[in-house]
Amino acid sequence: MPELPEVETIAAGVHARVHGARILCVWTSGKPQTFKSPESEIAAALTGTRIESVRRVGKTIVMTLQRDKISTELLIHLGMTGRLLVSAPEIPLAPHTHAVLTLVDHREIRFVDPRRFGRLSLHAPPQLTTQNSQLTTRFSGPGREPLTIALDDFIALFHPRRTPIKAALLNQSLLHGIGNIYADESLFRASIRPTRHAARLTRAELTLLRTSLVKVLRHAIRLGGSSVSDYVDADGARGFFQLKHRVYQRTGQPCLVCATPIRRITLAGRSTHFCPRCQK
After folding, report:
1. Which residues does 269 contact at the CB level (< 8 Å), separation at least 6?
2. Superfamily assignment of 4-123 in CATH?
3. Active-site residue 218, yes or no?
4. Catalytic residue list contains 59
5. What are the structural domain ranges in the chain?
6. pLDDT, tens digit (0-9, with 9 covering 90-100), for 64-113
7. Do domains 4-123 and 151-274 have the same CATH topology?
8. Distance separating alpha carbons of residues 278 and 280, to the nearest angstrom
């Protein structure tokens, strides 16, 4: 499943290509699993709108649209295999395309999802009635933003948790956007074993974990994310951060620091990779 760096890369790429464009028409596939809002409502809400911005909130892509000073947000969750592509109209539709937003200049924003775990929905926050009408309640996601959370707030989130720190990092109601890859990689860089209870980590350890998490996420964003499965960016290009993984999916390979074989266990229902020597 795409995590924060992959979703950030896609959102930034789509924004750069389509912000300011108008949506001419909307086609949807009729596959109900893909749509949390009725397809007819999505088409009616989007047709004729101007794309103000495309941004990431957690693991969700948020497209802000405006028509006659009324703003709406389209929420796009990629699920396991979802792709959001900006394509020329002459490029054939990929199998499992479930939505096409055709722009006035005839380019198309396409949502492709073979396994149909992704979701499209509308978020229409309350509107101001003044001449300078704008969103009053933008979609903010379920948890805190990992890239901007203050240190004291980060410590306050995790210090009371009597669960393994890996499970706490995956809890989207605490920090949103963190998944298996970046939890494993950040814990390795902070020298923290994923099975340790969050409540037993010292302030110094949590401080190092926050620093490591931010560094890993920003490095991954610079490299376009990790392409370990179906992930590609808005142009269909793969990311490169998988070449920098130190523990994730390296079971049995030597640790890049101490040469101890990387271990894999199941924690909170997820595969978890760590170095039994470097991580205490």
Report:
1. none
2. MutM-like, N-terminal (3.20.190.10)
3. no
4. yes
5. 4-123, 151-274
6. 999 998 899 999 999 989 999 999 999 999 999 999 999 999 999 999 99
7. no
8. 6
